[in-house]
Amino acid sequence: SAYPMPEEKSVTLRGRNLVTGLPDSVEVSSIEIREALSNSITTLINLVKETLDETPPQIIEDLMESGICLAGGVANLRGLAARMEAELKVRFWVAEDPLTCVVRGAGLILDDIENLTPFLVGLERGSTSLSPVRR
Fold first, then answer.
1. Is residue 64 within 8 Å of residue 90, measured between CB atoms?
2. How do the pLDDT tens digits run along the chain, 135 residues long?
3. Residue 11 three-state SS
4. Domain boundaries of the chain, sorted by first residue
5. I need a surface site. Which of 23, 44, 63, 133 has the fewest CB within 10 A?
6. pTM for the whole thing?
């Protein structure tokens, strides 16, 4: 988990021991997982914080009202939304079907690319600043 849980859990993982080459099992707790992911989660939170620091006030107002949606595989990490809320003071919520929602959204855009192109922004190759997408 990304955040302390009311009830910490553990799971037994089975596989091949890379040292001995033999089948083995090990019990891993949610606390150990949290420690292993700590640096990556802290980096993610810092990147979101930097983005929020650069966001115009009128958009921050919208985010405070509606929250920020987590999508992709990381959204399934237990406690991530709660930890981000605690550290960033903004509501976070997990998208319905977070593993596929981004690609489904991209598909919807491609289905109506002519009408949606004016709203798209992207990175030019080698650039770090967003600019309108050219067709």
1. yes
2. 888 888 999 999 999 999 999 999 999 999 999 999 999 999 999 999 999 999 999 999 999 999 999 999 999 999 999 999 999 999 999 999 999 998 999 999 999 988 988 887 775 666 666 566 665
3. strand
4. 100-135
5. 23
6. 0.73
